[in-house]
Amino acid sequence: MQNALPAETQTAAVQDNQAPKLKPLRARRFAGYESALKYLDGHVNVERSRPAHIGKDVFKLDRMRAILEQLKNPHHEVKFLHVAGTKGKGSVVEMAASALSACGYATGVYTSPHLTDIRERIRIGTTLISEDEFTRGLGHVAGAALAVEGDHGPATYFELITALAFRYFAERAVDIAVVEVGLGGRLDSTNVITPEASAITAIQLEHTQLLGGTLAEIAREKAGIMKPGVTTFTFPQDEAVMAVFREVAQQVGAELHVLGEQVDFSWRFESSPELGPHARVCLATSRSNHEHLPVPLPGQHQAYNCGLALAMLDKLRERGFDTGERPVAVGLARTPRLGRLEEVWRSPRILIDGAHTTESIHALVKAIGAHIRYDSMVVVFGCASDKDLPGMIDKIGLGADKIIFTKSSSNPRAADPVELQHLFVERHGKMAQVEPTLKDAINTAARAVGRGDLILVTGSFYLAGEAKRLLREAAEKKAASQVEPKG
Fold first, then answer.
1. For residue 93, which of 122, 226, 315, 399 sits 20 to 30 Å off, Cα-Cα?
2. Res 9 pLDDT > 60
3. DSSP, residue by residue, 253-276
4. Is residue 390 within 8 Å of residue 367, measured between CB atoms?
5. Which H or E run contains 456?
6. Up-side HSE of residue 468: CA atoms within 13 Å toward CB?
7. What is the distance between the alpha carbons of residues 210 and 2, in angstroms, rounded to a whole number?
8. What pTM was computed for the model?
9. How far is 344 from 53, CA to CA, in rounded Å?
10. Among 89, 63, 17, 90, CA closest to 163
11. β pairing state of 289-294 and 276-284
12. Can you name the residues that pair with 265 across neighbouring β-strands?
């Protein structure tokens, strides 16, 4: 299967390194934050679109470059780390950013998707961009997008947010920004930056209708973030993937460093009274010596992700950043979970996780078994219809004592929970429930568990985010009802 993404096109001006003539930029004035969100929602959103409905003209780096040119290229004023991959890239971003913040640097963070608030995507440290800054900044980006629309077509949802993030980081003069690739890599809107270092995490089969039907094809799209003279870090993977990485690195003149090969790296899994079961990593270079650092996120698969974060931090040390061992260790320990086995309710215990591929569901089940004590586990599951449904259902069936299928109300690509139930029964011969809404599913799960039991909501970031929002609203309502009236 050939991938559906087009070959990259560039304007002659960009190819010749000549600045195009800028059109007068008039920032759009929004009535308020909600008005800005409404404008944004009026643009093509690849995250929520079925692949068959996505036109090839959606993926055009020349449009992104033109928008940024209108904004006077704010990304040229910022230093970056760039992270791509199928699974784990968000974890690498969070670990690297948390460590950099602990080292005293104003650190921009750009991730996707978000769980409950779009502003989660654009942060400095753990502080979200304010609603006012979001609204004002998007007004400038909207003006830039309009100025180039005649030549390049309408901007996408992701292009607008990416441009907003770059402008915000430049405006706030961050010391460095850690950027997560949205989709693929080669034609992703973030791929206009030249980072200090980059990383590529695990390559798995996902978005096959857009990126290609084999690991090698997907790896080639991800490897598109490699830049001349820039070191890209990865870890040992399928040989077809590694062959593509080596080929692309040689073609573009990038350095490819593999953990355990060019980078002295090792890890082990252990248990201690203080931390319980966890992974520890070691990474040593001529500049850094990280010994037996606890990996802050649960799951053995996070050991390599932590190694990638440490490797990029070491590269920054080579480039003049002070990323000493002690502050890095402190920062790693503070890494937020944000949808990665995140506890969002205590009684009953409810965890959310954005796992959305067969491999990530498998890793999730293993992580829960290794890290969390419980008597029985009820899984509330919903996923997108274009995923590997049999594979995901088989993996979640291994760890669940009871499954409730449902769907996110905010994901138009959500699979029909009745179809998921039928598939599960067909493959496993076990019973499973269906609830039409996530709220109903959580309430049903809560009635089915006892004191030592666990509820897990997983299958997509949309489902995990909706669960977090519903439970936060429930907590606020409960707290308000307990406040005694005055007088």
1. 399
2. no
3. T-EEEEBTTTBEEEEEEEEETTTE
4. no
5. strand 454-458
6. 22
7. 9
8. 0.91
9. 35
10. 63
11. antiparallel
12. 283
At position 227, the amino acid (one-letter code) is K
Residue with tokens 């791509």: 84
The sign of the CA dihedral 453, 459, 461, 467 is negative
The token duo for 143 is: 């003006």
- Six-digit token pair at 199? 């990383």
Q: Under a CB-based contact definition with an 8 Å cutoff, are residues 223 and 65 in contact?
A: no
Phi, psi of 485 (to 5 degrees): -65, 145
Q: At what angle do helices 157-171 and 61-70 cross, to 10 degrees?
A: 40
Segment 49-105, tens digit of pLDDT: 665 556 656 778 999 999 999 999 999 999 999 999 999 999 999 999 999 999 999
Torsion, CA 162, CA 230, CA 209, CA 404, rounded to 10: -70
Residues 482 and 470: their CA atoms lie apart, in Å, by 19
CA distance 265 to 267: 7
CA–CA dist 99, 418 (Å, integer): 44
Q: How far apart are CA 485 and CA 477, in angstroms?
A: 15
Domains of the chain and any CATH numbers:
12-254 (3.40.1190.10), 342-481 (3.90.190.20)
Dihedral in degrees, nearest 10, Cα atoms 410, 87, 131, 473: 50
Q: Which has the closest alpha carbon to 112: 190, 175, 58, 42?
A: 190
Q: Is 165 exposed, middle or buried (0-12, 13-18, 19+ CB in 10 A)?
A: buried
Task: Report DSSP state, residue 43.
Answer: S
CA angle 233, 340, 258 (to 5 degrees): 15
| Kind plus residue range of the DSSP H or E element containing 388 | none
- DSSP helix/strand/coil, 282: strand
Kindly list the strands in the beta sheet with 197-200, ordered across the sheet, starting from the edge strand earlier in the chain: 127-128, 122-124, 107-110, 176-180, 80-84, 197-200, 231-234, 255-258
State the alpha helices, DSSP H only, in 83-203.
89-102, 131-152, 157-171
Token representation of residue 327: 């502050």
Phi-psi domain of 51 (left: phi exceeds 0; alpha: psi -120 through 50; beta: other): alpha
Question: 178 near 97, Cβ under 8 Å?
Answer: yes
Structure tokens belonging to residue 228: 């001349």
CA distance linking residue 400 with residue 266, whole number of Å:
32
Confidence class for position 273, pLDDT limits 50, 70, 90: confident
Task: Check residue 328 and give its pLDDT.
Answer: 98
Q: State both tokens at 411.
A: 């994901």
Strands of the 264-272 sheet, one edge to the other: 264-272, 276-284, 289-294
Specify the residue for token string 């440490």: 310
CB 197 within 8 A of CB 81: yes
Q: Which of 190, 196, 193 is closest to 85 using CA atoms?
A: 190
